[in-house]
Amino acid sequence: MVDAIDEEFARRGYTSRSEAIRDALRDWLNPSVQLSEETLADLQESWAQREAGETISLDDALDRYDVDVDDDQA
Questions:
Q1: Cα 42 to Cα 50: distance, rounded to the nearest angstrom
Q2: Looking at residue 62, what is its pLDDT?
Q3: What is the pTM of this model?
Q4: Which range marks the domain in which residue 19 is found?
Q5: Residues of the chain whose pLDDT is less than 70?
Q6: Which residues, including other chains, have CB under 8 Å from residue 58's CB and lie 6 or more apart?
């Protein structure tokens, strides 16, 4: 197992085994968020809408629909 760790930390560009193990443990304790396929599709659609100019700012939406909010809420 140590040989495999040594090969992997060198391949990933770490300068020491302890640095690689520390990062591996950090990833284990704080795993990255995995988004669902549905969420990724929604994000892609949202980005496309923004690029196409199909979105408006919150302030513009509030003005358009004549909504009053406290500054603490907006």
A1: 12
A2: 93
A3: 0.42
A4: 1-32
A5: 71-74
A6: 74
Token pair listed for 44? 């892609």
Contact 16, 5 (CB under 8 A): no
Coil, strand or helix at 11: helix
Q: How many helices (H) does the chain have, and how many strands (E)?
A: 4, 0
Looking at residue 6, its pLDDT comes to 84
Same domain, 27 and 47: no
- Quote the pLDDT of residue 63: 94
Neighbouring residues of 53: CB distance < 8 A, sequence distance ≥ 6? none
Separation between Cα atoms, residue 27 and residue 19, nearest integer Å: 12
Do 55 and 68 fall within a single domain?
yes
pLDDT tens-digit readout, 42-53: 999 999 999 999
Q: Is 72 helix (H, G, I), strand (E, B) or coil?
A: coil
Q: Do residues 52 and 69 both lie within one domain?
A: yes
4, two tokens: 């495999």
